[in-house]
Amino acid sequence: MASSRRLRALITNDDGIDSPGLSALAAGARDAGFDVVVAAPHVDASGVGGSVLAVRDGSRVRVHRRELPELPGIPAFAVEGHPAFIVHSAGRGWLAPEPDVVLSGINIGANLGHSVLHSGTIGAALAASLHGWRALAVSLGTPLVEPQQPRWESALKILPDVLDVLLAAPDATVLSLNVPDVPVSELGELREARLAGWGSVRVRVDHVSEGDGDLLHTHEAELAGEPEPGTDTALLAAGTRP
Fold first, then answer.
1. The whole model's pTM is what?
2. Which of 30, 53, 112, 173 would give a disulfide with 169, using CB separation of 3.0 to 4.6 Å?
């Protein structure tokens, strides 16, 4: 980009403004030299995909200024809307100057296969491409039982190299980075992968009748069998194994 100014990065996610992964990604972008602004859903918005739903009062959507302890001096906003809504708002006059890139994450849990269409983390990145911005979605491949101390530092270790790839790519490029939740010393090489048919996890939904009515009970389960070689699911699984 033929400019002496710093590139501006919008940091968002679908796990919500209070997610430690959001603060980690914003800190990584700041340390990489970006001018950073944070805007994320005020509550967890996982699984909303590219939805542009927001909590509206007529034509108004509430925005709450926040100070994130880990990010002194960085403007941060909790928005009563979904991730893609936030990104589109940034491109329709809300943020001035508007961002050059959108970084979404760090998501708690991998985003793999064609089921990434359900991910709000991915939805935000895809929304950025509609504005001609480059975007990166970052996910940490944690197990179904979330660890007490996710290894955000492993994702941040890889982040600068991937940002170099992103900035060298054409406008509107979207990349998805999945990092295994392993120590930095155990990280393998960065690999490009094709999307698996689904992903590593599938949600089962059971109809349950109780005294106060009928319910749909959902729970996640890892898919059985070996993933197809060369897919994102297979490469992440290989990187997670000891």
1. 0.89
2. 173
